[in-house]
Design a protein that fits this description.
146 residues, alpha/beta, 2 domains, 21% strand
Length: 146
């Protein structure tokens, strides 16, 4: 789901077959259309604003699962929608240290290419402008060059 051309292209490169560009209720209706009225079995919400969390809950089918990655915009989550759908929701900030031993060999040996999502590199003092660029949707992900 999304309308940012760079993000959509990267999603397709990673295997996306359908792109939902609509927002809010129109997005929910489009997902229902694509899933024969059922909703998505699995939904991944990645550091979205509050509306993204609400949309994730609404597009999940009854009994589905919503995974959340990253630090959310708000401290609360509207969980009543998940409860009445018997949907599960789990996630949290990306604990890099928990996965580094398992994933680092895959990165170093070329089986995983994490750099595909980073499209701007800068110094530590450029982090605030890098995050502004991500917020403005000019950049997918900013990384610090060491």
């Amino acid at each position: 789901m999304g309308s940012n051309a760079k993000r959509v292209a990267l999603g397709k490169e990673f295997g996306a077959t359908d792109v939902v560009r609509e927002r809010s209720e129109e997005a929910v209706e489009r997902v229902r259309e694509l899933t024969g009225g059922l909703g998505a079995q699995s939904v991944l919400e990645c550091v979205g604003v509050e509306q993204a969390v609400v949309t994730a809950l609404e597009i999940a089918r009854p009994g589905g699962a919503i995974g959340r990655v990253g630090v959310p915009e708000h401290d609360t989550t509207p969980t009543s929608a998940a409860f009445w759908k018997n949907a599960s929701m789990a996630g949290g900030p990306a604990p890099v240290r928990a996965y580094v031993e398992e994933l680092l060999p895959d990165v170093l040996e070329g089986r995983i290419e994490p750099g595909q999502v980073f499209d701007r590199t800068g110094r530590l003092d450029e982090v605030p402008s890098g995050y502004r660029s991500m917020n403005d949707r000019d950049v997918l992900k900013f990384q610090i060059a060491f």
